[in-house]
Amino acid sequence: MRRSAQEAQRTRDRIVRVAVNQASSVGLSGLTIGSLADALGMSKAGVVGPFGSRGALQSAALTEAVDMFTEAVVTPCLAAAPGRDRLHAVIDAWCAYLAHSPFPNGCFVTAASCELDGQPGELRAHLLQTVTRWRNFLREQIVSAQAAGQLAPDHDVDDLVSTLNGIAMAANQEIQLLGDDSASARARRLMYAALGMAGGERTPHGG
Questions:
Q1: CA-closest candidate to residue 36, choices 53, 55, 51, 21
Q2: Which domain holds residue 140?
Q3: Which of 22, 24, 125, 132 allows an S-S link to 105, with CB 3.0 to 4.6 Å?
Q4: Which CATH number belongs to the domain containing residue 143 in this structure?
Q5: Is residue 204 part of a domain?
Q6: Quick one: signal sequence residues (predicted)?
Q7: pTM over cut 0.85
Q8: Domain count, the chain
Q9: Closest listed residue to residue 167, CA positions, set 193, 203, 196, 198
């Protein structure tokens, strides 16, 4: 029984990994059971079975993509002290992630945001929660840095959060559409400049 449960989990994980890669290229809306079945060498029933519906499979793919972003950008930065040190770590990891995205079509959340922002439903609600959590995380680090006297206190926090996200989204377009290899380094400089922090002239890790 335990082996069957483990095998079922491995199958589910394999389906989700392929679904994430496909959705990165064709969008979550373009993700079909048939294309996944062909890619996995499975029946359609075998693909959808672990999830119960196509919608649940799409949601699982989005969750996996978000988890990958969290592991690459957020988790490693938590060892740094809140505030300026953590902002340094976040910006460096974020820009390195943009330069070397694990997804075929760049930042998954950015692509999903463009795809789903005008499509009400469970997937959009899921994405909204994800983006809100990320923005709140950035906001907490900026507030901590301001409270510690590490950032100018007169800068509006929400303006800074929007600026950082806008820079990242622009860099993703420059990397994916324009093929600009300098985009991640530029994004890093602009993020540091927006926050009024020194150190943005260094090349991001891996960039």
A1: 21
A2: 58-195
A3: 24
A4: 1.10.357.10
A5: no
A6: none
A7: yes
A8: 1
A9: 193
